[in-house]
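Hi team,

Below is the intake form for Putative cation transport P-type ATPase from Nitrococcus mobilis Nb-231. Please confirm the fields before the structure is written into the shared record.

FORM ID: S-0412
PROTEIN: Putative cation transport P-type ATPase
ORGANISM: Nitrococcus mobilis Nb-231
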Amino acid sequence: MRAWKSLKGANFNMWTLIGLGTGVAFLFSLFALVFPAALLAAFLGHGGGVPLYFEAAAVIITLVLVGQLIEQRARERTSGAIKALLDLVPPKARRIRSDGTDEEIDLAQVQRDDRLRVRPGEKVPVDGEVLEGRSSVDESMVTGEPVPVEKTAGDPVTGGTVNGNGGFVMRATHVGGETLLARIVAQVAAAYAVRLKVGRCSPATPRPWPRRTSRSPRSPSGPRRSPPR
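The structure came back. Fields below:
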């Protein structure tokens, strides 16, 4: 089906090559099986037998289907990785009002320079800087290190990391698509969406360059005169 669409739309790609190769092999084998006497001597085997390519076409199609299955599984794993990265971000954040009280808001409502409170065991909502408090933060999703990192006033924290036993107040420095986790998700999604596009084959052949012929200037008519002495 893909090979037929590529031929119909003149957009030649890998499926065009596979479709033409297996189709020609199958049709030739079918013709040789039904009309073996109509084949020329050049198409016969060494012993005079009729060559058949049914198994070759079947093997090629099988290998292509296996490759498509492996690619589909890789896509599913990539999609699962993107979903797992998105699940690292908490859906809510606890913002501190000007009077010192807390309010729970959606993560999309967090703005830069907002003061946020992170309680023990909660996930850090966005990238920011610790203003008050002291705690240990599990940054294994960024660094891969299983040992929590101590955080005090002035230390940076990354959105999606898990807070330890202590609590702290932080200032949001990067929100939305500016956070480290959002950039990682964007890069993974961009790598997932990459597709190699095969350019259209132009049926026209380039024209040869015009041949230039140099002509020598003609000599003036009339008898030649000897130079003066």
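SUMMARY LINE: Residues 92-180 form a domain with the Calcium-transporting ATPase, cytoplasmic transduction domain A fold (CATH 2.70.150.10).

Thanks, M.
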